[in-house]
Amino acid sequence: MQRRRSSETLKKPPQVHHKNQTDLSAWRKGKRTDPEKSVQRHQSPNDQESDSEQDSLEEALSYFEQVQDRISLKKNNVLQKHLTTVESIALQRGLPPEGFDVLLKVALSGKLADTVNTRLLKSLIPASVIPETSVVSAVSWLCVSKCSGNIQLLFLRWLITMFDFIDHKEELHALYGFFFSFLQDEKMCPYVCHLLYLLTRKESVKPFRIRRLLDLQVKMGMQSHLQALLSLYKLFCPELVTITLPGKMKTYFKNSEGPWKAAINTVRRRNQASSPVFQPLLLGPAPPQSRKRKWNTQLMIPASSTNRNNLEEDREKNCVKLYSRDESFPVEQLQTFSQLLQNIHHLEFPSQMGSVLTNPLLLHYMNCIKDESVYLRLYYWMGQTLQEECTWCVADNNQYEEEFRDFLETVYKTECFLQEGFSSCEEFLYKSLPLWDGVCCRSQVLRLVSWIPLSGFSEMKSHLYDPLVQLFFTSSLYFKCSVIESLKELLQNWLNWHAIHLDSESDSQVHSLNTTLSGLVNMVAELIHFVGWISTVALRLENNHTFLLYFVLDFYETVCDIYLRYNLPLLIMPPAGVFYPALLSMDSVNLNQLCYIMYRYRTNLVAAKENELSKKQMLQFKFSSQTYQEYNQYIIAMVGCLWTSSAFQKDTHPQGLRMDDELLKKTAVKEFKTSFNIVNHPAMMGYAVRFLQQAWPDDTTFNFSLIKGKRWDWYLEYLYSQDLKGLKVFIESSINRVSQASHSKAENVQV
Amino acid sequence: PPSPQDNADAQKTAFLLRKQWTLYSVTPLYRFSNAHLKHYAQLLSAFIAAEKQKGLAVEVGVELDIKVAVSSIPDLKGSDRDQDAILVQLSLRSPASRKNSEEKLVWSGCFCCVSGDHLSENLPEDFTCLPLFLANGAESYTSVVGRWFQKTFDCCFRRLAISPLNLSWMAAMWTGCQVDKTTSAMELVFSAPCLPYPLDISYAIHPEDAKALWDTVQKTPGEITQEEVDVFMDCLYSHFHRHFKIHLSATKLVKVSTAIASAHCDGIIKFLQSKYLAGVLMLLTELAISQIQ
């Protein structure tokens, strides 16, 4: 099938070849009409050589054209000379199209001895293309059987090997019946089958031919070449014949390109690999049996095969056609993206929708065709498969965890490809999460969670959050991190979905049914509050673990930008249980990330306020003053900590750092006020040490109080150069430095 | 429950009676058409032959060893909104008696939908809802036929197990049904869990006693509630406990046999009364649909 298809595209390449091939006619023209060029050519030794080769090839061809009855090779030096010429030129650079007619005729006419004919056939290597007419006349010589059986076989093998080099195939198709009649010959049968396999089109499949092949099958038993041809017939006309191929078959045809393979490769390399590529025959063998003996096991993702089920009665002929449209393109033949583009108007989905999961081309097609039945078929198949094969819901299934894991992985990849979640998968999660142990197929299940579609009615709390929370609190740190990561992806997927559908508001039927804007805002808010809550508890359980904090802040990096990046009027500040552990984190990565997040909150809030003031748009949604108030409380605490060393006095958050001086004095820390500024903060102290080392290499006292005045500015520059970009944007936006010179008199900027 | 069908149709559905049927749920068939049943039979018989002799091609439409008949049974449904049931029969043509066309029925399968129209409510026309599939015969045939249907109509088959809860419903419902001749006893089979060896407990009750008990439990005739079913079963359990000191409530109900039908939790059923056939099928359709959705 492949070869036939690639041959159809062969019509163009010759033009490319002409540039660097030995073209006899071009050479003639050049010699006769363009003396100037021929002079030039004679100047180069290479060209001279090739010219003399052309001359001798032309001589040889005209010799073979006129050769009379049987001449012995041994006694005839002229024949020997010309034969050697043809052979050497053919093997090195291939023969020009004109050569084939003459040489095929002489090889098949039986005029010369078989040794000569064999050598001639073996040297029929095309430099570019083989003219169809020369093949047709060769076939007519074959039919009069003047040559020996061995030569007939060799010719057929040559024809199969060179099939893709033949410039047209129409007349060759007209000879289908002639080839078919050669099936009777036992020796020729395998090669004829192969040739017919290359030639067969839907219209070639006729009931009488099927019967002939079945008769042959009875006579010869199971033969792989017959199987191949019959299964191609089945592909085109499943209403006439059917066959189940045994599972282990790999090759269906004997290798026929042996004698020519090396030469073709040489010529192809010379012609810079622009000739057709041989691809293996593609036949669907029976799918490997699953380890399970259950017949209806569905974990096997079916192979793509044509939908045979479009029975349409043709009233006049009173027969049944299985394809609804004759020209529909069988999915088995769909191998490349360009084929998809060429056939997209008459492509049909495979008979079993589940097969699209492993076929990216069909997924592309699915993305273009918004057909309800496509999704329904997939919905039923996937829903049943997930339920039936789930290793933790169905007893006795646990031995197949690996299989199931691969299946979930495939489903997840498909969702990523289509950029949407399957509702069957969502239902599966809701049904199976309460029974899940949090271990089995962990990463697959959590990744599938991230593709739960945004739909108005689903009660996320009871379906997703409640079962997840039980596992979350009782599982390891890494599990907690993965849960938060997949919920971040879930949030992003929802926001992306909203942003895309906002753009295409015109086709709003889809989502206006399911979600209103307020419904959507509520669902997103519910998710964010949920993650805020579990993050707070988890940070406490895990002792503010840096790794966990990293995932939590990663989540808020999406949250803080919802208004500007996704155009959704929603901003939710992190709870104090997340904010303060991050602010007092021992790790500069987390502190830096918190700074960046606060900067983005500021940018979003400022933009929202501006929009509100200018009333550019009628705002249905306003951020509540509480959000601004929360932000301001946090910013006071942050600036108080990092910059003005006044957090213990000024923090107004109820869960904040505010403490009485008396109490602080009891801690016996001397410089408690400055203990969280950008110099003394545990997360920053490392930088301060490095800074002092670089600035005063001789001083080993590490006197941090030296960093003030101008040095404070240098220190800042140093910090910025250490990739603390979050800190930089935060300080530049949120701290209003009275003047660049008076460093320490800075204030926090409130929104 | 009262049967929507009457004795007039009894003959056409009689093939279902007194045989063991294995139950499956089937998702809606895509592009199935009642107009092409004959061709489906031809294709299916060629498919079976090709599967049997892997690697040999089979011509479609010729006479093969296994004859396939696909027919529709318009009578086997609950309302006009249900699809016609489809019967698939495989018969063996013995080579010796090919001339006198003697055939032996070896396998039958029946797709049906009795009062299950809520499944098809929002489905496009391309889909045919026959959610309940019953098979009688060798599983190897069920497998081939099932695979052909899955391939051709993009549907999924799943074994339909019956939960102990649903079995107790069947026990209560069937106890209340009127049967002309009450010959056989009502039998409940329980299985004790978590034992190194299987222990089944068979509990047989005289049908009239069971009926008398049920009549005291049921408040409104023609209507059954979960509460009533629970009370009924609890009465049977406490009676058993009084005699044998065994708490049946701690075991698993695996089989219910009455004069109406017998059902096993593995999803095997035997219909015994044509009068109540449709009623039982309706309940099974319901179970099949809930497994699909």
Give the structural class of chain B.
alpha+beta
Tertiary shape of chain B: elongated
With helices defined by DSSP (H or I, 4 residues minimum), what is the helix count of chain A?
36
Number of strands of chain A: 5
| Low-confidence residue ranges of chain A | 1-44, 273-293, 310-325, 506-513, 739-746
Helix content percent band of chain B: 25-40%
How many domains in all of chain B? Answer: 2
Strand arrangement, major sheet of chain A: 2-3
The main β sheet of chain A shows up as: 2 strands, antiparallel
Q: First CA to last CA of chain A: what distance?
A: 69 Å
Largest sheet of chain B: 11 strands, antiparallel
Number of contiguous helices of chain B: 7
Using a beta-carbon cutoff below 8 angstroms, give the protein chain pair with the largest interface and the number of residues from each chain.
Answer: A-B, 48 and 44 residues
Strand fraction of chain B equals: 25-35%
Q: Give the end-to-end Cα distance of chain B, rounded to a whole number of Å.
A: 25 Å
> What series of H and E elements makes up the topology of chain B?
HEEHEEEEEEHEHEEHHEEEH
Q: What gyration radius of chain A follows from the Cα positions, in whole Å?
A: 39 Å
Helix content of chain A: 55-70%
Quaternary arrangement of the chains shown? heterodimer
Beta strands of chain B, count: 14
Please, could you describe this protein's structure?
Chain A: One of its GO terms (cellular component) is nucleus. The complex is a heterodimer of chains A (751) and B (293). Chain A is mainly alpha-helical and 751 residues long. Helices cover 58% and strands 2% of the residues of chain A. In chain A, a hairpin with an 8-residue loop joins β4 and β5 (746-748). In chain A, α10 (149-161) packs parallel to α13 and α24 (477-503) runs antiparallel to α26. The longest helix of chain A is centred in the middle third of the chain and has 27 residues, at 477-503. Chain B has 2 domains: 4-159, no CATH class; 164-265, no CATH class. Chain B has helices spanning 10-13, 37-52, 139-153, 164-175, 207-217, 226-244, 277-292; strands spanning 20-26, 29-30, 58-59, 66-73, 85-93, 103-112, 127-128, 132-137, 157-159, 186-191, 200-205, 252-257, 261-264, 268-271. In chain B, strands 1, 4, 5, 6, 8, 9, 10, 11, 12, 13 and 14 form an 11-stranded antiparallel sheet that branches. In chain B, strands 2-7 form a two-stranded antiparallel sheet. In chain B, α2 (37-52) crosses α3 and α4 (164-175) crosses α6 (226-244). Chain B is elongated and about 65 Å long. The interface between A and B is large, with 48 and 44 residues. β1 of chain A pairs antiparallel with β3 of chain B, so a sheet runs across the interface.
